[in-house]
Specification:
Blueprint lengths: L1 E6 L2 E4 L4 E9 L6 E7 L6 E7 L5 E3 L7 E6 L4 E6 L8 E8 L12 E2 L3 E6 L1
Parallel strand pairs: 2-11
Antiparallel strand pairs: 1-3, 3-8, 4-5, 4-9, 5-6, 7-8, 9-10, 9-11
Length: about 120
């Protein structure tokens, strides 16, 4: 069992930056892939980024590639999403998830989810 708690969201102006955090508790999740997803009002949840805990490799959606960096702190059992050059279209609730599946971007294959943190980017 893994519990995930997101934090770090807020209101920023276009071009600004935020760092989202996803703190994990419960059993160790060293074997999990951790992913960030987002959901804007009226839209489906979409993949943003993932990091494979086994080797630390990362993968990003084209929409955020070059602007976002996913990272981890093993000692704190925390995954981060650093977002730079934010755009209004980045506005969404951001969720972190954990999956046993290697490198999946499919939300249906994620086993655990946090409650989400709101990111709002103004013009």
């Amino acid at each position: 069992q893994v519990q995930l708690v997101e934090s770090g969201g807020g209101l920023v102006q276009a071009g600004g930056s935020l760092r989202l955090s996803c703190a994990a508790s419960g059993r160790t999740f060293s074997r999990y892939t951790m992913g960030w997803f987002r959901q804007a009002p009226g839209k489906e949840r979409e993949f943003v980024a993932l990091i494979r805990w086994s080797d630390g490799s990362t993968y990003y959606a084209d929409s955020v590639k070059g602007r976002c960096t996913i990272s981890r702190d093993n000692a704190k059992n925390t995954v981060y999403l650093q977002m730079n050059s934010l755009k209004p279209e980045d506005t969404a609730v951001y969720y972190c998830g954990a999956t046993y599946y290697y490198g999946t971007t499919n939300q249906d294959q994620y086993d655990y989810w946090g409650q989400g943190t709101q990111v709002t980017v103004s013009s």
